[in-house]
Amino acid sequence: MSTTELHYTADVVRRGTREFWWRQVGVVWPVVTIAVGAAAASLAWQHGRTDWLVGVMGSASLISLLVMAASYWVPLRRSLRVLGAMSGSPAQMAFTAEHLSISSPAGDALVPWTRVQSVWRLRSVWVLAYRDGGHSLLPLTDLASETQEQLLNVCRDAGVSVH
Fold first, then answer.
1. End of a domain among 85, 118, 149?
2. In terms of residue numbers, what domain contains 107?
3. 84: which residues sit within 8 A by CB, 6+ positions away?
4. CATH number, domain at 140?
5. Which of 44, 60, 127, 153 has the smallest number of Cβ neighbours within 10 A?
6. Which residues, at least 6 apart from 21, have a Cβ–Cβ distance to it below 8 Å?
């Protein structure tokens, strides 16, 4: 069993959440949302159209913006709340071929690899995305290259998708 101490800060949580959010949302979704909203606004103000099509386009654009914002803010707030419960103490991470264990003052988790859907290797963190929609951030500053390689091998052997 390999054990690693993970140090979390608000900056690590914000940066990791932002990178993961951007990876999920991508470029196309915001561009299409803005284009549809701009088209609806143009039809309404420049051409005086107020029919159902303009209303649907405007509503779809607004709902899309709200979903994008919520998909960033909800995980960020949840992660910052957990960080606050940690009281500045590091977390302990250990893993075997069967499971991942993370222990901190905020709580303990024993996660079988079958529950992990994917690992996202981002610039500052790795994100373990769980099948139930949750996720864990692993700061790269605390993961030695040997530990990273071991973790990737265990994930691949367990059938976890690595991106």
1. 85
2. 2-9+88-162
3. none
4. 2.30.29.30
5. 153
6. 71, 72, 75
